[in-house]
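Researcher: Please translate sequence to structure tokens.
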Amino acid sequence: MDNPMSVRFEIRSPNPHTNTYLALAAIYQSMLDGIEYAVKSGKAASQLEKEFSKAPDEPADYLEKGRAYRSEEDVFEHFTQEKRNEFFGVPPRTVWENLRNLDKYPGKRAILEKGDVFNSVIINSFVKAASLQWLMELSERIIAEGHELVRSCVKCHGSGYTDYDEKLWLKIDGLRKYLAKDSLSSKSLFTRIKELIERHDYDAVSRLQLEMAEKIEELKKLYSLYKRNQLD
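Model: Translation complete:
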């Protein structure tokens, strides 16, 4: 305890695009709120530790019911993915899901706004900047890379093909067209996402981004199987 360098806190949630100043301010606001609770509750360290170690179904004075916060077990070895999600919650899957949480959890937003450290102007400016960056990344890089992937998945089985080759290719080609090929009667997933961006329907954009990620991953796996089955 006499060595100030013997203890450290490690925060892994920020990404490389994180604004360091906003992140540090939000982290300190959250820590101060917990410290304030610990001081005002009058609880001993052992009582606070017990609350922090609660089971998901146990209520607590400060922490949320319905989730756990720590475990003595190796959560990756002893818990399934389903159980980890149930115990510790599911992180936002897209930037938009993350931004929506500022409105979804007003109590947590109020913690950020204590002492006027954050206010509506700062928070709304952050949401706007993060949204613009997300949409640009999605339309200019992620969808562009998706187009390149679709074009690279070409039919390559020759006269010696098997029914397995043909079955895989039909699935692959169906995914390619669903992702990137427009027709007079239907629009591709890439086109629909771009049109929703133009209409500012970001809830729908977020949902289709998740679908796109799932379809692209499926395409990669199918094409890998298809290529491995070719003899030349």
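Researcher: Any highlights?
Model: The longest helix spans residues 120-152.
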